[in-house]
Amino acid sequence: MSNVGQQLLSGALSGFATTVCLQPFDLLKTRLQQGDGSVKVPNSRSSVILGTTRDVIAQHGLKGLWRGTMPSLVRNVPGVAMYMTSLTQLRTFMARSPYFARVKKYPSGELSDKNGSVLPSLTSQGNLLAGATTRVAVGFLLNPFSVLKARFESNIYAYESLSGALISITRQGPSELLRGFLASSLRDAPYAGLFVVFYEGIKREASYLIPATSGSEAALIHGVSAASAGAIATLATHPFDVIKTKVQVRSEERYHGFFRTISTVWKQRGVAGFFDGASLRISRKVLSSAIGWAVYEGVLMFMRTS
């Protein structure tokens, strides 16, 4: 299998694993963010999360927490495969440039740690640029499925099938398929850029201080590095996630448009309104980053050494 084929397969498996395991976090986050700020909510966010969870289970049973899994898989399996493969290919290309290539010897005297990573090493500027550019490009292609996923997870729309939902959204015109793309880009570009910078930085220093001697140790380093990077990047970009969800889900005029939505949230809830669902998104991103990158790099290392 070619390198690109290996990367696509590893990315697809990564997307599948994270989506199936963590769909309840996405569903609950969407339900929390979809609300109109003019409706007062309890002061305790934990009580809102628990109340929303109970409502979902009471109406649809435990399986209701996995509502929207199919559109999530339709988006995430090819999306993660495309993102990780494109990111790896772009970083490989950029590594040929002396401006972006990073050279650092390990204690063994080698330029890379054979058990540490199979990915190209770039400077922080290179990682930031590669992550942001790739994420926005893939996000543009998959935005229609992001709209579909958000509305399927919401309880505002009564879609009964994936195909019916997609047809309904498509009939509303091209603009509907790209709803929330600006907010998504402003969330995803800095998120992906910061994530790759912190992930590679933490992983590099951990591998330098404690070189991995086996695949399991390398997977642990990848998982912890990704989880740490995911937490930092998620907190920094969460307000744009709130805006994206409201633009894609709410139909009221006051939520039509990026700047109008910002104004609405600010007037109704203030700063707190931009962090609705933050604990759920951080929890989900920490776990998905740890699982996703450990699976991606682990599968790549396995295929290249077997």
Portion in beta strands: under 5%
The low-confidence runs, each spanning 5 or more residues with pLDDT under 50, are 108-112
Number of DSSP strand runs: 0
Radius of gyration: 20 Å
Shape: globular
Q: Average pLDDT across residues?
A: 85
For the sheet with most strands, the description reads: none
Number of helices: 10
Helix content: over 70%
N-C termini distance: 12 Å
Structural class: mainly alpha
Succession of helices and strands: HHHHHHHHHH
Q: How would you describe this protein?
A:
- The longest helix has 35 residues, at 215-249.
- The chain is mainly α.
- Mean pLDDT is 85; it is low at 108-112.
- It has helices at residues 3-33, 45-60, 69-94, 124-153, 162-171, 174-177, 181-209, 215-249, 258-269, 278-305.
- The protein is globular.
- It has 10 helices and no strands.
- The relative contact order is 0.15.
- Helix 1 (3-33) packs antiparallel against helix 10 (278-305) and helix 4 (124-153) packs across helix 5 (162-171).
